[in-house]
Amino acid sequence: MVLSDRDRKILWAKAGNQCSYRYKGNNCSQKMIEAPNGSDTVVGYECHIVGKTKDSARFLENYHSDKMDTYENIILLCGSHHKLVDDKYNEQIYTIQVVRKMKNIHEYQAENQLTSELTAQLSNKTLKNKLLKCYKAFHTICNYYFQKNFPEKYHNEKVNQNEFTIALKLLDKLQDECLEHLALFYEEKKSLLKYFGPTPIKIIFDPLDIYMSLNNSNGLNPIFMNINSKTVEEKSEIEPIFKKLLNKINEF
User: Fold this and answer.
1) Which of 41-50, 169-178, 232-241 has the lowest mean pLDDT?
2) Averaged pLDDT, 95-121
3) Which single residue of 75, 128, 176, 244 could bond 103 by disulfide (Cβ 3.0 to 4.6 Å)?
């Protein structure tokens, strides 16, 4: 009797293409399939937990033969650990209980690692989308600022006050959302999240101050944009902020 196709698929899937050896803090990370020359090579071994023959490690006289070649009685190991675990001289170390436990621990870790990676990918995607919205909102704000304050030079910018107000509120909202999203997720998934600084958006926009004054005599709302307390007069002055924001977006 051999391992069924169904049991083999379950075994390899749950092992996550990794050796299941886990013993006293020594966790093997050897992949079960390697492709050194672009062609897949199987380097993993399907090993019995309860030995199949009398001269094998962990043999039990009364073990039910129908359970011998099943998923429950097979562990996936690399070549080195297959030799180590299945050496009859080591069966007092690698008992049935020990080997079964290392299989269960590894499969649990492999499943949770995959779930964590998928969750991190989704979180990174969410952050990237918010950064893109920040970029677009800031672009709208800058166009409005230059067309209102320097109409002779930037008369081609077409952004109305309502669009500007919406963009300004959105930028402020997204800064806080990005920080909150990052802080909550980073504490739980430090090794998986593409972390880009303690205050990613705040640092980028920190030297920048954008605000509107009250209506003046002609009914308009002047907008002011300062960088390090200096009035912005040229688009080139805000290009470093755009560049930093794009660099953060491109990290994903």
Assistant:
1) 169-178
2) 78
3) 75
